[in-house]
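Here is the promised in-class demo. Please do not try to memorize the tokens; focus on the logic of going from shape to residues.
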């Protein structure tokens, strides 16, 4: 879809409704806190444009272009947004900064929502999720946090320590498994990742486990041996469980910005990635990278990491993200 085509009762709520409202409010508050640094830099520029703009002209759009690019939304995505706004302005004048803000929010939400797709649900458990990416992005930590997230959904969980390459990766995942109260299948360092995956899937099936999260070794798309190893793991999973792995989540560090995006673009071509986990979102003033990911990789952002604690992993919401950035 082209961006250019965009554009009661007085009774007290029942207790479940109150709880749902509190959860939504709490989620929005945490998302707003996570993008605080981005909002400070980005929104201040937008506010200046809004305050000074009565009729949106080319000068205002150029100021907006600068604000978008410096927030790491990227040149390609920024150009598309601006082209859509210019096309709208030709057909119907954009009356003032507030309307410009409203149109911008609609554009950003559409970009983030377009790649969203239903999460696969296997006909029988377990649902198998691979965590992939380069070293240092937080795959092992994310595996542990995902285990805690599933537990909070009242789902049974098993972790698989398939990163047998990196020293201390197995021990690190053991710590997260203990924190989240789940069991873990492991082998010795240097062992065969496909073999430990086989054991983990067999155990998950025998125990009727709902979610199996597989922490894989950090690798670059250029490392053919490691990519072959990942493909072997995919074949092993598919042989034991139909359509597995059901999700392949690429863990990206938000603070690496456009450099990380280029790496992810090459990685997704060779690893069958189905979604993104964007870590360290709270540590960057360039959270617009989430928008660039959605548009340029055509992949949904599934989760965002917003801190170091066990529950500092949020299921991504395009609406909450955009509202948090732009108010």
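The designed amino acids, position by position:
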């Amino acid at each position: 879809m082209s961006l250019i085509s965009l554009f009661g009762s007085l009774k007290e709520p029942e207790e479940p409704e109150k709880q749902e409202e509190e959860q939504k409010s709490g989620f929005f508050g945490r998302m707003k806190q996570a993008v605080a640094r981005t909002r400070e830099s980005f929104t201040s520029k937008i506010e200046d444009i809004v305050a000074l703009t009565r009729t949106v002209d080319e000068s205002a759009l150029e100021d907006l272009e600068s604000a978008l690019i410096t927030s790491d939304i990227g040149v390609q995505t920024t150009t598309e947004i601006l082209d859509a706004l210019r096309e709208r302005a030709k057909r119907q004048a954009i009356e003032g900064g507030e309307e410009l803000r409203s149109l911008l929010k609609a554009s950003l939400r559409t970009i983030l929502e377009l790649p969203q797709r239903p999460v696969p649900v296997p006909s029988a458990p377990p649902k198998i999720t691979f965590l992939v990416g380069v070293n240092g992005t937080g795959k092992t930590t994310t595996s542990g946090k995902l285990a805690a997230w599933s537990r909070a959904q009242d789902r049974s969980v098993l972790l698989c320590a398939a990163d047998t390459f990196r020293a201390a990766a197995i021990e690190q995942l053991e710590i997260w498994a203990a924190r989240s109260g789940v069991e873990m299948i492991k082998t010795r360092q240097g062992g065969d990742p496909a073999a430990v995956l086989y054991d983990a899937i067999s155990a998950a099936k025998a125990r009727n486990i709902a979610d199996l999260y597989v922490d894989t070794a950090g690798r670059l798309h250029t490392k053919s041996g490691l990519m072959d190893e990942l493909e072997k793991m995919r074949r092993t999973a598919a042989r034991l469980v139909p359509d597995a792995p059901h999700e392949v989540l690429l863990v990206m560090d938000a603070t690496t910005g456009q450099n990380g995006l280029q790496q992810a673009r090459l990685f997704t071509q060779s690893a069958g990635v189905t979604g993104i986990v964007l870590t360290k979102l709270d540590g960057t003033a360039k959270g617009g990278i989430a928008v660039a990911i959605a548009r340029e990789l055509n992949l949904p952002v599934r989760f965002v990491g917003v801190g170091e604690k066990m529950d500092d992993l949020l299921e991504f919401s395009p609406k909450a993200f955009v509202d948090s950035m732009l108010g």
